[in-house]
Amino acid sequence: MTTDIKIISFKNEFGSKFVEWQSKEKIIFSKGNKLFSSRHNFTNQILIGEFPMSILYKFITQFSIGKRLLRSYYYNVCLIDKNRIFVTFRKSLGIFENGNFFSVSGLKRPARFLRNACAQDKKGGVYLGEYISNVQRDEIHIYYLPPNSRKLKIVYTFNKNTIRHIHGIFKDPYSNDFWILTGDVNDECKILKTSNEFKTLVVIGSGNDNWRAVSIQFTEKNLYFGTDAEFGKNYIFKMDRSTYKTKVVSEVDGPIYYSCKIKNQIIFAVTAEGCPSQKVNKVVLWKLNKNNTATQIKSYDKDIFPIQFMPGIIHFANGEPEDYIFAYGIGLTKLNHKTIKIQC
After folding, report:
1. Distance (Å) of CA 180 to CA 168, 188, 190, 211, 300
2. Which one, of 204, 201, 202, lies nearest residue 223 by Cα?
3. Is the pTM of this model over 0.90?
4. CATH fold of 72-207, please?
5. Cα–Cα distances in angstroms (integers) from residue 249 to residues 188, 221, 272, in the given order
6. Residues 317 and 325 sit within 8 Å (Cβ to Cβ)
7. Across 122-253, where does the E strand assignment appear?
8. pLDDT tens, residue by residue, 29-38
9. Residue 239 and residue 262: Cα distance in Å, rounded?
10. Which of helix, strand or coil describes residue 13?
């Protein structure tokens, strides 16, 4: 099986269409606050719905820089069943159901949920963890949205002064376990696991930036994650499933937020954050093949705008990628709000 990676850039007319979810049969993409389904070539477009937005907000976010300043993006799109789609948009939650939009209630306070950081169980229910600034280190909640509900319930709470926030919750496709990634400083950096629907959480590793991760990928024998260190060096790690021992696969120049898996290869995206740990302010895509060899495959320069308008970043689609995955860039000179297809 080939290990070659090809990156295909779409023409400009597809540039503002962001693929949020994909399967073999269809894609779900956003355009502004609207959500559509279509074929993979963006034909046969069907409007799913529109996330509520004021006239002023719509006006501001029609411009790229306004959209970035206000973080006006779909961050999570999860199919509950064929008629219901759960979404997080900026700091709001909702469900599209048979052409209608319904707000999801139950949040204790407004919170953002990072890209593809919500995990579903076999029933279609969704787990999500709070991502807030939390300078004061208040308690942090993990929520659950039952598959037939529009109201969240709290299933686990981190006590005060234990973590800053939750980077993501991820379902292990090889077991019934869920993995939880937290940050940001010293013992707040944790990778945890639950095997009993969040009744208890087991700390797999913690204590320093080597356990500060934003996303994680799974294979039958190992787990893989990249670190999100602001001041220290960053690495791609391999973790043995049976022993939880970790091994450095490669050092990388900058923090890694997001990753994805295509066939038997894993893609990691270094974020252009401009932090002290980063020598060159670029997004760099790395591929990790089944032999645990890491290789740089593409890089993109950060644009001129400061981090207040978002770092340079790659957003991967959620769902069920096979031979390729859609992605789009933010804050990059040649890829801002443009769609690409990463293909094996």
Report:
1. 6, 12, 8, 11, 29
2. 204
3. yes
4. Neuraminidase (2.120.10)
5. 24, 15, 21
6. yes
7. 126-129, 140-145, 153-158, 165-171, 178-183, 190-194, 202-206, 213-218, 222-227, 234-240, 246-252
8. 999 999 999 9
9. 19
10. helix
Alpha carbon distance 272, 311 (integer Å) = 6
Pairwise CA distance, residues 301 & 287, whole Å: 18
Strand pairing report for 34-38 and 46-50: antiparallel
DSSP 286-327: EEE-TT--EEEEEEEEB-SS-GGG--BEEEE-EE--SSEEEE
Q: How far apart are CA 145 and CA 120, in angstroms?
A: 9
C-alpha torsion 83→316→190→205, nearest 10: 110
Tell me the C-alpha distance between 210 and 17, whole Å: 35
Domain ranges, ordered by start, for the chain? 72-207
Biggest alpha carbon–alpha carbon distance for the chain: 54
**Could you report how far apart the first and last alpha carbons of the chain are, in Å?**
9
137-164 pLDDT, tens digit per residue, is 999 999 999 999 999 999 999 999 999 9
Q: Which two tokens stand for residue 69?
A: 């300043």
Of 105, 71, 75, nearest in space to 87 by CA: 75
